[in-house]
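Box 4.2: Ligand-aware structure prediction
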Amino acid sequence: MVSLTGKSALVTGASSGIGAVVAEALAEAGARVGLVARRGELLEKTLARCREHAPGSAMWVADLADLDAVAGLAAAVEAEFGGVDVLVNNAAMPKRRRVQDMAPAENDDVLQLNYLSPVRLTLALLPGMIERGRGHLVAIGSVAARLGPPHEAAYGASKAALTAFWESMAVDLDGTGVQAHIVQPALVDTDLFSLPGNEPPLSDLSDALPPREVADAVLELIGNGRFERYVPDWFAEMASGKAADVEGFIAGVKEWTHDRIQALGAEPA
Ligand SMILES: NC(=O)c1ccc[n+]([C@@H]2O[C@H](COP(=O)([O-])OP(=O)(O)OC[C@H]3O[C@@H](n4cnc5c(N)ncnc54)[C@H](OP(=O)(O)O)[C@@H]3O)[C@@H](O)[C@H]2O)c1
């Protein structure tokens, strides 16, 4: 396993789900971890677990949808840690809603939190990383970035935008010592599927993977320097199959969506 002894990491959305487990895994690997989310009482619990491995870990309660506050947050973390070596942009919101039922502001909110905010945080921490000649910029994307999920247009678009930004960034940063990585998870067992303001999920949640698989993928990419990792990794084949036959892919997803709605016994609310 990769050693992060003496390194500092920052994980957004560390109060629950994937972010909480990624934060703990980074602490286990030796990093002092900074935690960010809105729910302070849950962050305290993640912090206590991180401090068992990395006593210098710290937390910041912040609403990352407030774009004007992101640069100040980055400055506060850099001041506390003297620089950030690993940034994991994990915080995001779902939006399970058919396009014909979607209000424009819902799309805006998703893009703001899932795309604009992590880009702002990344751009705020990048100069310090470049100056030190090292760093890992990790994004938690989604297979939705590559596979156009039904009833998730805004969410899929936010992850596709993040992925496109990360691809270009990986090239732009060549030679700086700073690397970009993105993990594209499929179904993971978290609260994402029970948050209010969403249709019930179409997917069968009994297939969901434990968040630790995403944390292992983050550590794997930091260790091997590669750009992208699907979780589970066989989704890479599905993405390349789609790229080779988009018409066939869309026809197949229409059929799958129809079948799932029938199986769930209701039209989406
Ligand atoms: N679960 C899956 O199947 C799956 C699949 C693919 C990708 N992902 C991605 O994995 C990441 C983590 O999601 P999850 O599944 O672990 O869901 P989750 O348990 O709902 O975690 C979301 C995290 O984001 C934080 N967050 C949400 N809005 C925020 C805001 N305005 N400001 C600051 N923090 C905010 C939440 O904390 P607070 O509410 O305390 O602010 C929470 O810690 C997301 O990027 C998601 O898109 C998940």
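In the box above, the bound molecule is NAP. The chain has a mean pLDDT of 96.
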